Amino acid sequence: MPQIIPFAKVPIGENERKYIKEVLDSGWLTTAGKTLEFEKSFAEYIGARYACAVNSCTAALHLGLDALGVRPGDKVFVPSMTFTATAEVIRYLQADPVFLDTEYRSNLITPEILEEAISRHPDVRYLIVVHYGGQAVDLAAIQVLCQKHGIKILEDAAHAFPAKREGKMVGAMGEVCCFSFYANKTITTGEGGMLTTGDEEIYKRVKTMRLHGINRDIWDRFTAQKPSWEYDVVEAGYKYNMPDLAAAIGLGQLEQAEQFRSERQRVAEFYYDHLSDIPCLDLPLLHVHPNDHAWHLFPVVLNKLSPISRNDCMDRLAEAGIGTSVHYKPLHQMTYYKERYKLKPEDFPNAERTWHGNFSLPIYPSLTNKELRHISEALHQILT
Ligand SMILES: *Cc1c(COP(=O)(O)O)cnc(C)c1O
Questions:
Q1: CA-CA distance, 268 to 135, in Å (whole number)?
Q2: Residues lining ligand 1, CB < 6 A?
Q3: Ligand 1 centroid distance, CA of 128 (Å)
Q4: Looking at the predicted structure, is the pLDDT value of residue 1 above 60?
């Protein structure tokens, strides 16, 4: 029988089932104790003062931009090489994205790229950085630049839990950081997200906007000493709260986060050891120690030497039973952004070079060495 190696596989432990049962037995399925517990554990894990659970990373990004003060007509720097959620939230607030190129092979925004962009667009006051693939950007250097130019930073850490840079956890370094617990991310709640911040005002604003603009946690009245029905509405907020059923899964996943991460690191190290002899295959560039990388993705790029196209290579791998994906088709190539902002490919030389040949290899804890050898052999057969 041919081996089938899917692109992604969700690892689920025993405690997820146990905590879900506790929620079901409690009779309270939406936001309450389990969500509070998940927020507290997550904040402790990261070393962040506040953590706010929401029902997606997209919601966290939206609330984060709002809390940073993005208003209609504002401009926000955002990398082109990301998922559309990173940029669409700018449009939710009727602000406009200004797309940036990223470094080849890391797909990160560098201080050099940013500095050049600031000189061309001195009116931009916000920046979203993406810790692409699970590798943190050089936030300290970027913060210095942004401070100088009055730019506020939002971190999209959808790929980057748990990750570090210079010994500091992603989520504890910046003003606002957003995580994803979507089904195929490094830990999952099915659908879910988390926003971390050290700023009390931002935390308050996010908590209010997360639940209809209500000025208190609505579930307080069921847990408070003195139950009270009364609340005030101070804004037209959103419905972005995380249900306890999801938080239950998150609590179980959080306990295993480092184990999952180190298994993915094993996979990445196998790929570096076994694929670096293929001249037409560019492997991801590392700026951090492998222990500090979340290893959400293992994106590779077929370069000019490749005997076949990216799509043909992915088809051949599929024939060998190996699932792959693409992260990403850059946003400057997507109809909505391309047409609305009249974007030109030549303004994104690194993203273009990447997009020409990029695809992502499977990377998840349960991949066996036998499966990894099969992937390596298939790639050697196709490309050498
Ligand atoms: C997955 C992802 C998101 C959105 O996460 P959701 O939890 O699905 O809303 C945002 N940014 C990036 C880079 C992602 O990969």
A1: 12
A2: 56-58, 82-83, 85-86, 130, 156, 158-159, 180, 182, 193
A3: 13
A4: no
3-state secondary structure 272-296: HHHHCCCCCEECCCCCCCHHHCCCC
Structure tokens at 293: 């990388």
pLDDT at 228: 67
Residues whose CB falls within 8 Å of the CB of residue 340, separated by 6 or more in sequence, listed in order: none
Tell me: the pLDDT tens digits for 304-358? 999 999 999 999 999 999 999 999 999 999 999 999 999 999 999 999 999 999 9
Q: State the angle between helix axes of 111-120 and 139-149 in degrees (0 to 180), rounded to the nearest 10.
A: 20
CB-based contacts of 37: which residues, under 8 Å, 6+ apart? 247, 251
Is the model's pTM score more than 0.85?
Answer: yes
Inter-CA distances, 5 with 8, 35, 147, Å: 8, 34, 46
Instruction: Specify the pLDDT at position 219.
Output: 60
Task: Pick from 80, 182, 184 the residue to mutate for probing ligand 1's pocket: most ligand atoms within 8 Å of its CB.
Answer: 182
How does the average pLDDT of the chain come out, rounded?
96
Mutate which of 57, 78, 89, 360 for ligand 1 pocket (most atoms within 8 A of beta carbon): 57
Residues with catalytic annotation?
A: 185
Helix or strand (DSSP H, E) at 40: helix 33-46
**What's the CA dihedral at 13, 184, 278, 347 to 10 degrees?**
-150
pLDDT digits (tens, 9 = 90+) for 261-271: 999 999 999 99
Residue 311 CB coordination number (10 Å): 11
